[in-house]
Amino acid sequence: MFGYIMADEKQLSTEEVARYRRVYCGVCHSLKDQNGQLCRLALTYDMTFLALLLNSLYEPPEQEDSSRCGAHPTKAQPFATSECTEYAADMTVLLAYHKLMDDWHDDRKVSRRAMAQALSSAYRAASARRPEVAWAIESGMGEIREIEQRGEDSLDAAANRFGVILGCAFSYRDDFWADELRRMGAWLGKFVYLMDAVMDFDEDEKTGSYNPLIAAGVTPEDVSEGLRSIAAQVAQSFERLPLEQDIHILRNVIYAGIWGQYCGKFGDAAHDSETTPSASKAAEGDDGE
């Protein structure tokens, strides 16, 4: 359920790609500083989007620097950190831990359990810093596991529950914007869960793993319109937020990036720009309202 909330870098300028990667590296550095070197293995672009979104909304001070790391041992890479990259790093650890445990319960992969155990101290530390979100993720993932084990034939049951999880993760502060962030995260979480089911459909059909589409007796083509409707809801919440910084990168993710794997598998025609929310905004600049 990771790897969908990311930019389509082909549609970004050189400067925007550089900015996107600086914040990605910033989340990586926050992972190391708060949770230890091993946690960098859990890094995803999904939580880079969250850091960019929260940076844009709350505009905290950012610290910029450069350094070498295991992934770039010979050349120092620039990075940007803030309280929002620190928050995104904690969300990365909390979500990664439960994803690893979910894989262990589903497939009994010893490597997944071993990795989860390696993250356990970082998970406890992140949980202590973000207790409400940690509880929401733990309880939500437990409910999703029960839904999947029962083999429920509802398309929405587990997807809605994952939406609640991501909505809670997006709600960074208890303030005026909390409800809109939670709403946006909830729709995005539902989109991600169903998109993951679409992308895994053929493999799950072969292995017999739970997939809500298979359980409901529908095909990926049957849910394409539903995915577009959900994406439209994500975009509506996104556009209600007063964002200026990195707005083109953020719109790129919302209107193009989240469809990247889908278009890679089914072709661009499957992602109909007329029925997805204002896809042209992904190509607009900061003043493209």
Describe the structure.
With 289 residues, the protein is mainly alpha-helical. Helix content is 62%, strand content 3%. The chain has 13 helices and two strands; from the N terminus they run ααββααααααααααα. The protein has a two-stranded antiparallel ribbon. α3 (83-107) crosses α5 (120-129) and α5 (120-129) crosses α6 (131-150). Residues 273-280 and 282-289 have low confidence and may be disordered.
What is this structure, in a nutshell?
With 289 residues, this protein is mainly alpha-helical. The protein is 62% helix and 3% strand. α1 packs across α2 (45-58).
Describe the protein's topology.
Layout: H1 14-35, H2 45-58, E1 63-67, E2 77-81, H3 83-107, H4 110-118, H5 120-129, H6 131-150, H7 157-170, H8 178-199, H9 201-207, H10 212-216, H11 224-239, H12 247-255, H13 260-266
Antiparallel strand pairs: 1-2
| Strand percent estimate | under 5%
SS-based structural class?
A: mainly alpha
Largest sheet: 2 strands, antiparallel
Q: List how many beta strands DSSP finds.
A: 2
Approximately how much helix is present in the residues? 55-70%
Figure out the total of helices: 13
Point out poorly predicted stretches.
273-280, 282-289
Q: Gap between N and C termini, in Å?
A: 31 Å
**What is the helix/strand order?**
HHEEHHHHHHHHHHH
Radius of gyration: 18 Å
How would you describe the shape? globular
Mean pLDDT: 89
Strand order of the largest sheet: 1-2
